[in-house]
Amino acid sequence: MTAVAAGVEVVGLTHGFEDRVLFADLSWSVPGGSITAVMGPSGVGKSTLLALIAGHLTPWQGQIRTAGAVEWIVQSVPMLERRSALDNAAMGLIAQRVKWEEARQRAQTALENFALGASAATRVAELSGGERQRVAVVRSVLRGAPVLLADEPTASLDPATCESICDALVASARAGASVLVATHDPAVAARCEKVLDLSVCARA
Ligand code: ADP
Ligand code: MG
Question: Which of 42, 56, 154, 171 has the fewest beta carbons under 10 Å from its own?
Answer without folding.
Answer: 42
